[in-house]
Amino acid sequence: MLVAKDGQREVLAEEACRQKHYLCPECDAPVIVRKGQINIAHFAHVHANNCAAGMGETAEHLTGKKQIFRWAEMRGWQPRMEYYCASIQQRPDVLAHIDGRPTVLEFQCSPLSVCRLMERNDGYRQQGWQYCWILGSPYRRHLGRQKSAQFLQNINGKLVIPYWNTQDSQIEYQLYPRQHLRLSVAQVNKQLNTFQQYNDATTIDLHRQLKMMGHYMLDCPIFCHTINYALPSTKHLLLLWRMKVAVYLMNAPIFTSWSVRKWVASLLELGKDEWTITPCLTRNNYLGRLEIKWLTQLLIDAGYLMCDRHNIVLLRRPRWFRSWNEKQIALRKAFTHHC
Ligand SMILES: [Zn+2]
Questions:
Q1: CA of 224: how far to CAs of 3, 6, 241, 291, in Å?
Q2: Fold of 58-176
Q3: Cα(2) to centroid of ligand 1, in Å?
Q4: How many angstroms separate the alpha carbon of residue 58 from the centre of ligand 1?
Q5: E strand or H helix at 91, and its extent?
Q6: How much distance in Å is there from the Cα of 72 to the middle of ligand 1?
Q7: Is pTM beyond 0.70 here?
Q8: Average model confidence (pLDDT) for the chain?
Q9: I need a labelling partner for 310 at 20 to 30 A (CA). Which of 147, 158, 266, 322 fits?
């Protein structure tokens, strides 16, 4: 921890003197300042106890937290270090005021479960605070889809995961493109290969359903493939959800009409086992809704759907390819030309 109590006053570790005793702001036990060679100045309990303050803090976390504090200070955000909020019993690393809005800046270096993260965010939201989770080096290795989704944030309209670089003392953003990416035929086939190895219940169920209709999963319509690989909206490949939408439309009568609200709800429901949890994006199922928006536009452009102001109408049903060969020809045509 970088802050301790000196009577009623709060002291930063770098301004504390070695001889004095201070009190832990969390448990009121005595703490001393440590100024070592590896760690920056920080407070530690005189006697080890179960107090959460300072527990398991790495050198990187201490350094980064202080740098983030200074960085916020330089930007005029009037930061407070390790500010304790009694009503939610939480102590964010830094509480800053960005454009007049209280904003929590958390520097996360240790593992954190989705559940715990949601609780923390709930607390901040209760206070009317914004929050930003900045990740440390342990998160720099390849994150799985659920982990990426967990820390994905919307900063100034961009979908990003922020990282703090303690070497250069600066923030870095990993950007997640908000658009569809064109795939090559090779990429589509690679995607299908990966997909073939799935044997979870949802995939097997879809496979069975298609078989009864006389189709193979791999011969799905081409619109199932134009996706944003990078965006961690689903646990597995988004392809699975798109296929389910295709089947849904194949089984709907022509000129079926959905209200926009009903349409979105139905498509969210089709992916209910697949959507990742995104506790740092404010709107519930933000990524799922984004995927629906993209797919709907794609289906309108391809002439399957029509949208008047309030309703979505089915004009044409998607068609499954009759053979792998037929699909490969269609794929080459679709992906080598403009489309
Ligand atoms: Zn303590």
A1: 53, 62, 9, 12
A2: Trna Endonuclease; Chain: A, domain 1 (3.40.1350)
A3: 12
A4: 17
A5: none
A6: 26
A7: yes
A8: 91
A9: 158
